[in-house]
Amino acid sequence: MTIKVNSCIGIEEWTTGDVKFYPNPTQDIITIELPNAHCTVTLLDINGRILEQSKNQLKTNFMVSKYAKGVYFLKVSDLNTIQSYKFFKD
Question: Above 70 in pLDDT, residue 11?
Fold first, then answer.
């Protein structure tokens, strides 16, 4: 199993490998684009609580307008890899 932690602050689109998420920071919606549909995307708060989850989608949108301003994490996982990404909600 491989674990990667990536963070990026203050640009419109962040690409790492084939995972893209944007905009960062965001106010309403965070969009995640994946290289294949065999992934699970989990939205977590700063305390690690699961807020939302999406499975087997090439493109996922999470409505973050209902959450407080702050730091959030996206966990992208498949059978072999877990990647974590940090974004900011304004």
Answer: no
